[in-house]
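Table S2 (continued). Query chain:
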Amino acid sequence: MIVQEVIVKNKAGLHTRPAAAVVKLASRFKSDFFIEMQGVEINAKSIIGVMSLAAPKGTRLMLKLDGEDAAEASRQLVEFFEQGFGEV
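Corresponding output:
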């Protein structure tokens, strides 16, 4: 299992568009993917789960990936978060 901390960097936080983009990106991989925020863990391949986090700018999230392609999935997802979902 790969566990990686990220910070939500864009002004609007993890709102609908970036939540959908995270799910779309995560769905390309076979690995299981979960996001933990303040002790709550959600399935990050579920749009409802990701949107339910309502993570504002500055929120620290733990990305948890497990599976055969977890390393590549982690790399791409961390990069996506680092880029502020293309909205910074």
